[in-house]
Design a protein that fits this description.
About 20% of the residues lie in helices and about 40% in strands. It is α+β, with helices and mostly antiparallel strands. Strands 2-3-4-7-6-5 form a 6-stranded antiparallel β-barrel. Strands 8-9 form a two-stranded antiparallel sheet.
């Protein structure tokens, strides 16, 4: 029987470089680079060059410019497996504040809109400054921007 899917948060596939810190098998807690596979407000799938065992605490720095995101989040590796000559690590965020969870949810929504617009070539219109919600609270979220006028996601 197939494993039951336990995720309930919307996730989006996105390939971005991130910095991580974790206690590696070597005993080092030195920073290392990883590549995101997907992300949700509850966790992130990472492709890493070193094996990180399930149960290992990890800090992931999510610093992106489009859509904007600037968070450093603690998590725990839930599963790890070889993938394409590297290692896949599924990281669940722990102790995340409601504000950071909302910021991540907004990022996921905007990243999904960008991906759909790039895939379909259809110009989608979303509120300018849609992101953390902080922009709207400061009164800057009233206008609209065309996603086709924004730079491509990096």
């Amino acid at each position: 029987m197939a494993a039951q899917e336990r995720r309930y948060r919307h996730r989006v596939s996105t390939r971005r470089l991130v910095n991580c810190r974790s206690m590696l098998a070597t005993g080092s807690r030195a920073p290392f680079k990883a590549e995101t596979i997907d992300i949700s407000s509850g966790g992130v799938g990472l492709l890493v060059d070193v094996q990180v065992r399930a149960g290992t605490p990890m800090t992931v720095e999510l610093r992106f410019s489009n859509p904007k995101l600037n968070l450093s989040l603690d998590g725990v590796v839930m599963h790890s497996a070889p993938m394409a000559g590297r290692w896949f690590a599924g990281v669940r965020f722990v102790g995340i504040s409601l504000a950071h969870e909302l910021e991540l949810s907004s990022f996921v929504m905007n990243e999904d809109l960008l991906e759909r617009a790039n895939r379909t070539g259809i110009e989608e219109r979303v509120p300018a400054g849609a992101g953390t919600g902080a922009e709207s609270q400061r009164g800057r979220g009233a206008g609209f921007a065309s996603r086709s006028s924004l730079p491509a996601a990096s």
